Amino acid sequence: MQGAILLAKENKELRAANEKQKQKRTRSRKHIPAEEGLSVQEASQLITELVEVDKAPPSPSRRSPSPALQPHR
To answer: Locations of Basic residues compositional bias (predicted)?
Structure first.
């Protein structure tokens, strides 16, 4: 009986750890392209633009990315 309880507890802990790993793998790993440092306001603006672009439905006549999203030269 105790062995079954221990196995059930271990199984529950392993499932929780597996779920945590799944969530970690599905997190966004996008990087903001910038060679120089960004101010908080610039970073915030770039993040909002990226989120809006991701949420927008794809269209065949999509424009090129805004100048703020292109790397500085």
So the answer is: 22-31
What type of residue sits at position 53?
V
Q: Report the alpha-carbon distance of residue 63 to residue 56 in Å, rounded.
A: 12
Core vs surface per residue 10-41: b (16+ CB within 10 A) or e = eeeeeeeeeeeeeeeeeeeeeeeeeeeeeeee
Residues contacting residue 45 through CB under 8 Å, at least 6 positions apart = 68
Q: Please check whether residue 35 lies inside any domain of the structure.
A: yes
The pLDDT tens digits of the residues spanning 26-50 come to 887 777 666 677 788 888 888 888 8
Write out the residue range of the structural domain in which residue 25 sits: 1-50
Model's pTM, two decimal places? 0.38
